[in-house]
Amino acid sequence: MSEEHEVLLQIKQLKTHFHLDEGILKAVDGIDLTIKKKRTLGIVGESGCGKSVTSQAILRLVPEFAKLEGELLLHRTKGNQKGEQVDLAQLPLRSKALREIRGGEIAMIFQEPMKAFSPIHTIGNQLMESILLHQSDNRKEARHIALGTLRKVGMSNPEQRLNEYPHQLSGGMRQRAMIAMAVSSNPSLLIADEPTTALDVTVQAQVLDLLNELKETVGTSIVFITHDLGVIAEMSDEVAVMYLGKVVEYTDVDTLFHGAQHPYTEALLGSIPSISRSGARLDTIEGTVPFPMNLPSGCGFYSRCKKAVDGVCNVADIPLVEVSEGHYVRCLLAGQ
Amino acid sequence: MLRYICNRLLQLIPILFAISLIVFIIIQLPPGDFLTTYVEQLRLTGTEVADSTIANLKAQYGLDQPLYAQYLLWMKNMILHGDLGTSIQWNMPVSEVIGDRLMLTIIISLISLIVVWAIAIPIGIYSATHQYSFGDYFFSFIGFIGLAVPGFLIALILVYIVFTQTGVSITGLFSPEYQGAPWSWDKVWNMLPRLAIPVVIIGMSGTAGLIRITRGMLLDELSKQYVITARAKGVAEQKLLFKYPVRMAINPLISTIGWTLPALISGEAIVSIVLNLPTTGPVLLKALMVQDMYLAGSFLLILSVLTVCGTLISDILLAALDPRIRFGGVNR
């Protein structure tokens, strides 16, 4: 990880615990991440590993009964606090500062655009709402910006689309509208929560290209959340692998694919189909992710790990260790 | 949109025809007719009725003709002259029997409908956004009482309490001096405070039900993804609430208009009887009991037409509010 990139958002010991009747569900349990300017951080993991909750916690979108701890230090790029560093975790939920940051400096792209748009308002209405909040008070100008943004994301017939409803658009067009809504206010950070999962492969490739292009032209940083390692390889500069609410491996993308050290990452990589391995059986990871409640002490991956050693791995919590510069692994056996 | 409305209006014609037919069949279904009841009553009081008198009466009311002829005659008079037939029990045209009462009923019901919506929707919104708070439990408790206790019982209790405390009888819509008087501003003025009690009682269970519906619908909508999207855009909570989830939660309420309209006319029957209100409910009940066929038939027909119209109104409103319904219909 090179030092030339300035830090945009520093996540320190972020925890999101849901206090349920059955006990405490530790969806995100103490993660540290650094998001640099104009870089893409990929977060990868299975369903239920806490990657979506992490993304929502950054914008304080988790339900109010969830307990959020840690620091979310954002280097502000807009507003009268420009240049200052604010801790998002300390902002009151209904504060103006938080509303300015939401959508204005940190914007989100959601997984299913059909559900993420209101079905009874036009695309134009929902797109312009964001622009009117963050950029312009003038409806005419907002409409102009909306049209420009729709063109930028490659939407066909933008004028007509503004007056259409979400259900009248195809899946790919809907996701483009979603992206347009997110980038319309030139945010400094774009959080994409599995933006391509609901799309078919060709549209998926178009959307990924579009995001990479926007990163170059607009100069935003991206947090890219996915369970697809192939997408990670295409999109990310740095990668964090999450398991059970914790980061188990955190490094740059090359090291991840060529020198992964955590058994979970190795197992994930082993389960990708490859042309060079044709004919061989694909590896799988045995078992399922444990329910993140009342977990035993020790490594979270212990029950499924092929290298697990009884009496070593299941005794105490495993720390995240820097094995080489910028390469962090949460495994006692790493580097051996 | 216009095409949608025209299409729906055209669909009304066969539906209304079918309804009138069914209504006619239903009022013919019970054994005997009004004349048998009438003759029975006369005989009980000791009056002998000659067969020729019965035959005459039958001819006078067209009861000697076959059923389809009776139906055609009824329909013909209704469509061509707006004549709903003659009430045998009152010996007056049906429209005269119903007329005044219908207007009063509609006034009372519309006011209570407005009161219900004005009270229930804000409370429902409050309950949903403050789920499990003291206020939520409080309104739920009151709501369940309103749902569970029949309106006429509350009416009886109220009448009793007011009478024992003040000596004033609050039944009826007018003070005795205005009872038979023609309509005037004084009479309206006299009526307004007396309207409050029936409006509260008739509206009570509706309010309770509507609070529960609004609360439930809104709770569903509040956790939807598009609410989170709007929040992630930086929309202020208050604005967000009314623009997105409340708008969506209102839809099912609008679709209830369909059965609200007929309930306006017939729903307050028991309360009206208890409070001695000159509305349509008691007349309908009586007409059904003595088999006054044209009066009962007209009532059933009005109720059915109101149901159909109410459904039409709610469908058109829904289409105006929700594009998915609009485009899901005939336009594609």
From TrEMBL, chain A:
Gene3D superfamilies, A to Z: P-loop containing nucleotide triphosphate hydrolases (3.40.50.300)
Transmembrane segments: none
Key words, A-Z: ATP-binding, Cell inner membrane, Cell membrane, Membrane, Nucleotide-binding, Translocase, Transport
The UniProt record lists the keyword ATP-binding: yes
Keyword Membrane: yes
Subcellular location: Cell membrane
InterPro entries, per database record: AAA+_ATPase, ABC_Ni/Peptide_Import, ABC_transporter-like_ATP-bd, ABC_transporter-like_CS, Oligopep_ABC_C, P-loop_NTPase
UniProt GO molecular function: ATP binding
Domain ABC transporter: 9-269
Annotated membrane topology: Peripheral membrane protein
SUPFAM superfamilies: P-loop containing nucleoside triphosphate hydrolases
Signal peptide boundaries: none
UniProt main location, coarse: membrane
Recorded superkingdom: Bacteria
Family the UniProt entry places it in: Belongs to the ABC transporter superfamily.
Protein name in the entry: ABC transporter ATP-binding protein
Organism: Paenibacillus mendelii
TrEMBL record, chain B:
Domain of life, source organism: Bacteria
Spans through the membrane: 12-29, 102-125, 137-163, 195-214, 253-275, 295-318
InterPro entries in UniProt: BPD_transp_1_N, MetI-like, MetI-like_sf
UniProt keywords, alphabetically: Cell membrane, Membrane, Transmembrane, Transmembrane helix, Transport
Topology of this chain in the membrane: Multi-pass membrane protein
Location(s), subcellular: Cell membrane
PROSITE patterns: ABC_TM1
Pfam families: BPD_transp_1 (PF00528), BPD_transp_1_N (PF19300)
Primary site of residence: membrane
Cell inner membrane among keywords: no
Signal peptide as annotated in the record: none
ABC transmembrane type-1 domain segment(s): 102-312
PANTHER family: INNER MEMBRANE ABC TRANSPORTER, OLIGOPEPTIDE ABC TRANSPORTER, PERMEASE PROTEIN
Family: Belongs to the binding-protein-dependent transport system permease family.
Name of this protein: ABC transporter permease
The organism of origin for this protein: Paenibacillus mendelii
